Structures are given as C-alpha cells and as structure tokens.
Amino acid sequence: MDYSLQHAESTPAPKVTLIVAVYNAEKYFDTFMQSVFAQTFSDFEILLIDDGSNDRSGAMCDEYAARDSRIRVIHKENGGVASARQVGIDNARGEYTIHADPDDTIAPTFLEELYTEAVRTDADMVMCDHYRVKEHVASYRALKPRSLRPSDILDDLLLGKIPGYLCTKLIRRSLYSQYNISFAKGLNYAEDLLICVKLTLHDIKIAHVKKALYNYNLYINPNSITRTLTREKLELRLLFLKLLFETLPKGTHRKGANFQAAFLGYESIRAGILTDEEYKSVFRKFLGRFWMSRYSIKRKFALVLAAHGYQSMAQRIIRKR
After folding, report:
1. Each residue of 72-96: b (16+ CB within 10 Å) or e?
2. Least confident span in 38-52, 199-213, 216-230, 262-276
3. pTM of the entire structure?
4. Could you give the C-alpha distances from 223 to 101, 219, 250, in angstroms and in order?
5. CATH code 3.20.20.60 for 2-217
6. Domain range annotation of the chain
7. 134, 212, 290, 319: which could join 303 in a potential S-S bond, CB 3.0 to 4.6 Å?
8. d(Cα 54, Cα 33) in Å, to the nearest integer?
C-alpha cells in the first residue's frame, strides 16, 4: 500500500476533510473536481483514495495534488469502497469528515453551509437534502425526519425515509474513535448506511440543512454496486443484513430491521436470479420478519410463498395488477 501524504505534517489541521474513494473514474473525475474547486469554503483538505484504479484515475489524482496543497493522495490495492472509505477516515485530519463520490458533484456552498450549521448548533452530524440526477434531469429529494433525535433518525434510515448516504452527512471525526466505529471489511454495499446506523445508536446531536447541496448521479458509473440486482450483489446485501442484525441491540428497531429483510426478499423475487429452492434456502430464516414487515398483505403473501419454495408462484402474484 503506497501512502502519499505530502503536506500533512507541515500544515495546520483543517476544519473539514473531504474523502473521495476513486476507482476507474477518469470519465467524470474532472467534472467532480471542478465542483470541489468551486467551494466557497476554503479550510478543508481533500483525501483522494485511489482504490487500485486501472485507468488514468490514479495519475489524475496525482496531477490534482501537484496543483493544490490541500489535496493528499493515497494509492492502495483494490479492496472496494468500504476499505477505501476506511483508509480515508484513518488518515483524515479535519474536525469533521464527509465523503463524496467522483461520479457526483457538489454545490458551491456544500462545505460552507454544512460546517456553518455544525458550528452554530454544535452538532455531531449535519445532514442536507440532495438532488437525484438521471439522464440530466434533477429531482429534489428533501429529508423529512420525524425528529432529529438519533433513535428517530435511525428508524427513518432503516425504513428508507432517509437515505444512508455519507455524502450528505458531515460527521465529527472523533465519533469514529469514541464509539469504535469502522467500515465493515468486504461490505461494498450499504456500507455507508451501516455506519449511519452505528452512529445513531449513540446520543449524538444531529442538525439538518434544508437545502439540496449534493447532486447524486444515477447510473452514470458502470462500476456502481447499486445497479440491477445480481447474485454477487445479493451476497453483499445479505452480508449487510447479517451485520445490521448483529449491530442492532436485540429487540430494538424491529420495524426498520424487518423492512430491510422484506425489501431484499421482494427485490430478489422481482429479479428472479435464484431458483425456487435457492430462494427458500436463503430467505426461509426471514419468514417472521416478512410477516411483521410494513408491506401490504399481497406482498407479504408473495414473500411467504417464495420463502416456502414457491417463488415462481410468488412472481405471478406480484405481476398481477
């Protein structure tokens, strides 16, 4: 692992560390970096974590670092986004950290407004709204938390009412060490959601900037793990469920946990990537969670049928209007 940490020891610690996990991003990296350089806030460092890219991304990271002393580059062997984000946290120097993806862009006031709100409210985490961009069409996604209490935010995260994106959450860096929170090794799907769950299990102070400051691009990156469900991605999502159930204290946040299990079960039926017997083998253990989920009776019935080995019948039920 090659760490290039120039400028780190000779400069004062910045207020914010922007962590960017970079993998084969050469086609859109310049556009992203232009949005970074347009920031109205200047007291930040940029950690570019080159996760073993095999295109020009690594070289581009070095070229940007040569132009701006706030940029540090870390080259590492490919290990997935979770390992790249963890390297970023381990090497961050800012009072607060935030992640961004190189296939997205950030508003000019992104860091300024989040940090200003963090200082004003003495918050441990500051969330913001975002735009979802698909085929050059942007749609506003407003957060509507029931409250800013950590337990309520956790429920909203698990129920899909608040996205688990770390790119829309400025987080006090000391929380990671204070609560012994780290990215799960090998979890390259929903790794950010699991971090948010771990954080909101504690009595942290949360604030919300009611502005869309982040542009989340859908489908621009062919390497994105969030595309159509495959067997490989199903394994990652099952790993997420396993780690989620281990993380949540027993008997707590049941609605959200049940929804997460039912959501994956339903998506798997729709994708049709498992045989009937395979589906039964994988999802039979979630029968209780399926029944207790907030899904409609029709969907619950389909999930239970599939979990008993009748996935083909469940697919026909789902397709009926």
Report:
1. bbbbbeebbbbbbbbbbbebbbbbb
2. 216-230
3. 0.93
4. 12, 9, 35
5. no
6. 2-217, 231-319
7. 290
8. 19
